Amino acid sequence: MSTTLLYKIFRIGSIPKKLRSTLKAEEIVISDEGIGGWFITRNLKAPGKRYIHREQGFTGFLVITQIRILCYTYWKRQINISVQDPLISSLFTELLDPHTLSISFQSSLFHKNWEGVIEFRFKTEKAQEFYNALIEKGLQSGCASNS
Predict the structure, then answer these.
(1) CB atoms within 10 A of CB 146
(2) What is the Cα–Cα distance from 37 to 104, expressed in whole angstroms?
């Protein structure tokens, strides 16, 4: 599994230099950058948005430190949660295949007036390592449901 073309050419999906030193200070457990994936929504209802099912590809990075879990797609922060936050136990992780990791959650946990499931699927050779680290940090095994 290799990095995305956007990463190879433009370094899109890399950890910004300013953030890299902060993450090193937080003691990186595992990280991967320039990884491709899918942003998926199911039955999403939000102000000005309605999607039964939507999938959008991305390139980005995923980092787990001793302090937080951080995910960026392109240059946008998508997940930034402290491992001490009680909501971390409301996030789900799943190993879909040896190279695909899923992180999903109910959108209403983090956005007022939102409903539905948000899922990030990462294509990485480190999927199993990420899965183990996420379970250790308190995520539930499985996939968030629409209930």
Answers:
(1) 10
(2) 13
Buried b (16+ CB within 10 A) or exposed e, 63-74: bbbeebbbbbbe
Render pLDDT for 84-120 as a digit per residue (tens, 0 to 9): 999 999 999 999 999 999 999 999 999 999 999 999 9
Q: What is the DSSP string of 33-68?
A: EEEEEEEEEEEEEETTEEEEEEEEEEEEEEEEESSE
Q: What is the pTM of this model?
A: 0.95
Task: Say which residues have a Cβ less than 8 Å from residue 59's Cβ, sequence separation at least 6.
Answer: 3, 4, 6, 7, 12, 13, 34, 35, 36, 37, 73, 74
How far apart (Å, rounded) are the C-alpha atoms in residues 71 and 51? 22
What is the H or E stretch that residue 17 is in?
Answer: helix 17-25
- The answer to whether 38 and 28 are in contact (CB under 8 A) is no
CA distance 3 to 137: 26
Domains of the chain, CATH where assigned: 5-141 (2.30.29.30)
Map residue 103 onto helix, strand or coil: strand
